[in-house]
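Re: Re: ligand-bound prediction request (bumping)

Still looking for help on this. To restate: I need the protein modeled with 2'-monophosphoadenosine-5'-diphosphate bound, output as structure tokens. Inputs repeated here so nobody has to scroll up.
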Amino acid sequence: MTNARIPLAGVIGAPIAHSRSPALHGHWLKRYEIQGFYVPIELAQENFEAGLRSLPLLGFRGVNITIPYKERVLTLADVITDRAALIGAANTITFRKDGRIQADNTDGYGFIANIRQNQPNWQPKTGTAVILGAGGAARAVISALLGEGVPEILVANRTRNRAEMLREHFGARVSVMDWSALPEALPKAAMLVNTTSLGMSGQPALSIPFERISPKSMVCDIVYAPLETNLLAQARKKGCTVVTGIGMLLHQAVPGFENWFRKRPEVDEALAAAVLEA
Ligand code: ATR
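Reply:
Sorry for the wait, this slipped through. Here it is.
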């Protein structure tokens, strides 16, 4: 027996009841027989700062942060990783031994790790990526793709101005295109990524002109409920390589779990099943 404190971690958001992170981390804690806990924490706006700052006293090693606090948490952090600064939001907080709050963003890492696990032969430097959407998820995906050496990224968004802001932020490899220009852009796209909420259960369908997409394209959706979105079903029919969205969620959790519970966890089918059932 040791007197070591039981490690705690969790996820802060509002609302938080629907978060799949407790099932995800709970599965790993059980699998690796780690004596620790991962809990959902709902904090109202006025309690966010005091609530976050109290957690290390309670034995928390860190937390995930979700909507609506992913940007705000950067104003409370003492150390911000380069990728969190580049994305402008954080999803993974670690309470360091020196008392400092470290903010990281693992969404882009999760996006890339998922592709690498499912498509090990992916060659990011060989072609253009078309990104649908210009919100927080798009920022994470674009910064990660730039980091992998994708030579050209075309962003299409309902609100063009938000796409223009991404172009300004990320520079010359990013261009803005109108949604209506997709028929011309798709034939030369090596990769198409949906980062919008379209196609999610309860949301409008994503409808794009698929006729001209190249069968050599890789099509990724970050929506994972349903797992087989209409976009991915159409892409499969065209013969494209398809990457589903659940793996991004699973992989983005790896660095946090490793920091807090001192074990690098595996992403596999059993984990995906546990999280999809949750
Ligand atoms: P997240 O952080 O998950 O990316 P977000 O910042 O709210 O969430 O961004 C949601 C994205 O989905 C945006 O690109 C949004 O387009 P707008 O910038 O025009 O709002 C897109 N989106 C959501 N609902 C949409 C709809 N009905 N039609 C087209 N795009 C939609």
